[in-house]
Amino acid sequence: MPVENLLGEVGKGHHIAFNILNVGRYKLGAGTIGGSKYAFRNGIRYAKERIAFSKPITAFGLVQEKIADSGAGIFAAKSLVYRVVGAIDASLAELDKSAPNLTQETQKRIEKFAVECSIIKVWCSETLDRLVDQMLQLHGGYGYVEEYSAERSYRDARINKIFEGTNEINRLIITGWMMKRAMQGQLVLLPAIQRVMDEVMAGPTPREERTGELADQHALLASAKKLSLFCAGAASQKYGAAVSIPRQSRGLYCVSRSKRLVRGR
Ligand SMILES: Cc1cc2nc3c(=O)[nH]c(=O)nc-3n(C[C@H](O)[C@H](O)[C@H](O)COP(=O)(O)OP(=O)(O)OC[C@H]3O[C@@H](n4cnc5c(N)ncnc54)[C@H](O)[C@@H]3O)c2cc1C
After folding, report:
1. 162 C-alpha to center of ligand 1: Å?
2. Domains: count for the chain
């Protein structure tokens, strides 16, 4: 390989390769939304045309449920993708485009979104996965027949849970990197876990009261966050340092005998 073809610095090629994966995961997620919308439109068109028991099948509650779930899945996937690309754009816009280290700075800034890119990859590919299954189901027996697009959508969707790192590996990245960043103080995760663990140990607390149009949704989200933090705390109490997956961060996280979360070596 001629030396003038070198990209970046010698010995640091993996940074470029991993960042390509980050962007690839983000793009995979965005791409699956196109597949989801295509399958969704075809599923609804078929359901409106198919008459059973003298009615279009869209009149049945269980069919409406599939359509509603699928629509909500697409909305959530799009919201995730737009939110993250907005944050990446805003971060890159701050860079000085004439700086000699522009490439390295761009790389560092994208790398900060590695967890979000993995979340998008997992969430969007699994949204597509559920959606094509629901839309195929709406087609009944025709869903299994190659002449209908539902069959192809179902088959084509499958690869998205495998390439750009399988969803199992991306789940490990989400946990590992989040914990690593918590250890490094880049995320205020440990104090939040500690607060929830303390709250649980102190006994039942009254439900948080909220007002306004989205009060119920806020309350549900707050409970979901607490549950996640509690699970993270319980997992770290049981598994100690092993909860932080990447090898380089092992040994950084442990729980003292008093069951408080502490920084380790
Ligand atoms: C159509 C297609 C196109 C592709 N394009 C590219 C490309 O352009 N560039 C490229 O670099 N690669 C590409 N790939 C490769 C793809 O990224 C890999 O197939 C994928 O990352 C999975 O790796 P593997 O096949 O070696 O599976 P394996 O690593 O053998 O995994 C097998 C199973 O074990 C599970 N597993 C493995 N380790 C763990 C663990 N620690 N914990 C839990 N479960 C685990 C996996 O999740 C999976 O379910 C492509 C693959 C396909 C099929």
Report:
1. 6
2. 2
Same-domain pairing of 52 and 123: yes
Q: Find the 197 Cα to ligand 1 centroid distance in Å.
A: 37
The protein residue whose alpha carbon is closest to atom 38 in ligand 1 is 169
79-88, 119-128, 146-155, 178-187 — which is least confidently predicted?
178-187
Residue 102 inside a domain? The answer is yes
Determine the distance separating the centroid of ligand 1 and the alpha carbon of 134, expressed in angstroms. Answer: 26
**Would residue 2 count as lying in a domain?**
no
- Per residue in 51-90, pLDDT (tens digit) is 999 999 999 999 999 999 999 999 999 999 999 999 999 9
Is residue 211 in some structural domain?
A: yes
Each residue's pLDDT tens digit, 211-253: 899 999 999 999 999 999 999 888 888 887 677 654 433 333 3
| Domain interval for residue 125 | 11-165
Q: Are 139 and 97 contained in the same domain? A: yes
Instruction: Specify the residue with its C-alpha closest to ligand 1, atom 39.
Output: 169
- For residues 232 and 126, give the distance between their C-alpha atoms in angstroms, rounded to a whole number: 23
C-alpha count within 13 angstroms, C-beta hemisphere, residue 60? 15
Tokens of 58: 């869209």
Q: What are the Cα distances from residue 111, in Å, to 11, 108, 203? A: 18, 5, 40
